[in-house]
Q: What sequence folds into this?
């Protein structure tokens, strides 16, 4: 993992072809299998990306770029939070085929910098509310 | 994380945290900023302290409060863990999906 200022990066290798992995970012039923409770997805430029995480937190944004099966970019923020509103940060997913499957690279940019007040408190609060969703089995 | 969740869930506590972000204040000085009772402020401070978000220091008979940067640093990691955990689930699900005969193709949402 890397956290540099307002940027978070992750990379993971998956033993499945990019075509399969890609659908987990664009098909709501498949999205539900790995993130949040219920996704509403319209995977085209300007289409909705909305994920109910739990009773108190819903992530919302829109797709900026959808290039099957290699690239998905969507904006990301929280409903009912003026400090991190829907669309205020950007998540870029890049899928690269390698001989055994897919290398998935996730870059999350535009997050409020922790050092910049007063955003980080609201940000932290909403992230804290999400804690329940990562603890699920 | 659960304690921090609860501590930050209250807007008043977030306001208090903001107030003591860059300076040390007594409970009385903090209370002066809000139209709530002093005991209410003390209770908020207790919650913030328990969550590691606020540090308390005694000076004579006074107790001074200040945001604890280390507590907030812990929260900064949250978004990173959010994706780290999510991507591991993605890996498991995608690999199950790609394994022939291991899983029925998903058809519709449950319930």
A:
């Amino acid at each position: 993992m890397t956290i540099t200022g307002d940027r978070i990066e992750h990379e993971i290798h998956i033993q499945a072809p990019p075509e399969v992995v890609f659908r987990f970012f664009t098909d709501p039923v498949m999205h539900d299998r790995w993130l949040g409770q219920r996704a509403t997805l319209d995977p085209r430029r300007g289409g909705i990306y909305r994920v109910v995480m739990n009773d108190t937190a819903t992530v919302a944004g829109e797709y900026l770029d959808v290039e099957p099966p290699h690239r998905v970019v969507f904006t990301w923020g929280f409903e009912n939070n003026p400090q991190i509103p829907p669309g205020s940060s950007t998540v870029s997913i890049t899928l690269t085929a390698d001989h055994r499957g897919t290398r998935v690279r996730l870059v999350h940019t535009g997050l409020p910098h922790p050092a910049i007040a007063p955003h980080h408190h609201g940000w932290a609060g909403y992230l804290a509310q999400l804690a329940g969703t990562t603890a699920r089995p | 994380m659960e304690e921090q969740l609860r501590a930050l869930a209250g807007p008043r506590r977030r306001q208090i945290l903001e107030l003591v972000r860059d300076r040390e204040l007594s409970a009385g000085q903090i209370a002066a900023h809000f139209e709530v009772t002093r005991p209410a402020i003390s209770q908020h401070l207790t919650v913030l302290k328990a969550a590691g978000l606020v540090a308390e220091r005694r000076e004579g008979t006074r107790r001074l409060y200040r945001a604890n940067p280390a507590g907030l640093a812990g929260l900064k990691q949250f978004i990173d863990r959010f994706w780290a955990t999510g991507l591991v689930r993605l890996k498991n699900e995608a690999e199950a999906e790609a394994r022939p005969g291991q899983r029925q193709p998903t058809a519709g949402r449950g319930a």
About this structure: Chain A touches chain B at residues 1, 3, 8, 10, 12-17, 20-21, 24, 27-30, 32-35, 38, 101-102, 104, 106, 108, 111, 114, 117-118, 120-122, 124-125, 127-132, 134 (CB under 8 Å). Strands of chain A lie at 2-4, 7-14, 38-41, 48-52, 58-67, 71-78, 89-98, 101-109. Chain A is about 20% helix and 40% strand.
